[in-house]
What we know:
Layout: H1 2-21, H2 31-38, H3 53-63, H4 68-92, H5 97-108, H6 112-115, H7 121-142, H8 146-161, H9 166-177, H10 188-210, H11 214-225, H12 232-242, H13 247-259, H14 268-282, H15 295-308, H16 315-333, H17 342-347, H18 349-354, H19 370-373, H20 378-390, E1 398-402, H21 405-414, E2 422-423, E3 440-445, H22 453-457, E4 461-469, E5 481-488, H23 492-506
Parallel strand pairs: 1-2, 1-3
Antiparallel strand pairs: 3-5, 4-5
Amino acid sequence: xxxxxxxxxxxxxxxxxxxxxxxxxxxxxxxxxxxxxxxxxxxxxxxxxxxxxxxxxxxxxxxxxxxxxxxxxxxxxxxxxxxxxxxxxxxxxxxxxxxxxxxxxxxxxxxxxxxxxxxxxxxxxxxxxxxxxxxxxxxxxxxxxxxxxxxxxxxxxxxxxxxxxxxxxxxxxxxxxxxxxxxxxxxxxxxxxxxxxxxxxxxxxxxxxxxxxxxxxxxxxxxxxxxxxxxxxxxxxxxxxxxxxxxxxxxxxxxxxxxxxxxxxxxxxxxxxxxxxxxxxxxxxxxxxxxxxxxxxxxxxxxxxxxxxxxxxxxxxxxxxxxxxxxxxxxxxxxxxxxxxxxxxxxxxxxxxxxxxxxxxxxxxxxxxxxxxxxxxxxxxxxxxxxxxxxxxxxxxxxxxxxxxxxxxxxxxxxxxxxxxxxxxxxxxxxxxxxxxxxxxxxxxxxxxxxxxxxxxxxxxxxxxxxxxxxxxxxxxxxxxxxxxxxxxxxxxxxxxxxxxxxxxxx
Length: 507
């Protein structure tokens, strides 16, 4: 027991070390991270962009000082806990030490290393998927009702973190119907557990209702602007690449779930992966939505492989199986993480292009992977806005208005805390403070190829000028321009209120 605990601790320590090593210091935080961190200043039971749990974690990060260390700590923690849950699942499936090491290695050296570099709901989403599947295994083994209630709690945490976990149930329920475990659906405790889960997520559902279900608008917007560019072939290729080092383990799991006698009671998991992937494909989901589906299958496959290779000369193949994920991580290390400079990526563009990493959500190829480009230019923007703000007469009467949530969030994260940048984009439309009149405007405008901001806005101010812009050519926000308008001729607050109403009515 002590030996196993030491080995698991070693995996967890290595996980944390790798997560902090895989980001070059020349990169800033990523666009979405700034929005989620700013939610700590606006705690609520719901947001336009995501459910509320990430905001509560952001509040903890704020209490700890809001440093990059703590921003990166939580996704690394969720990744480490995912390894621990897979470890416990393997133990529950009676896997030996070789199975435990194979499973932990497969999860460690996977796409989770990339996912866990970013402070987003996705890391906790994967942990919740894995934990909920583990709870199902525990229930099937013990038939103790307490596991149904634990499952309801895990589902509620997952739901309050990211609505994506609904797809787990959509895939799992018909899978159970196809097996002898369907009798579970007739048990009273299952429905009491479902009621508990509903009560736990009810505050968020009430918030959605009170705000005209912004999640529906958000999903429609995603479908129109991003999901339309998703193709089935690309989605399936990504599924292979996410856990490429453990692909043989996952395939072995599917075989074992059908033909390996000790796994007979878990056969619903075979159908669950098929139904869940089918639903994702039908809705043209982004490829990474399905990342949380696979860790539990690595657990099944690791137990089966270790059992098949436990005698005679086959034992030596256990070491080979364990080595494969680590060996395949080496080329992945050189391309999948923001640990290479933009100049390096530009020089090796074909390698990135062949893997589809240069394709953005607009369906076009660019110089850098989208997430990498989204980690550049933010400090530059914030520092320039801070300098402009400090040079204005009565800077406290200045509204900093941005085009998107990344710009607003980065300014609020890096700059003078008297600055509270806002936008009509995402959650910021609800965060305008119009209690005091504004006399000046700092306008952060994304580059679109047509510069009409001065022409449109200068008539409302006594002084108008182009103050600065983002000059990093690799940044997604390259050429984003900062305009300064001084001395309002009109009531800025009233015009902002009108624009807020238009935005909300549109939604």
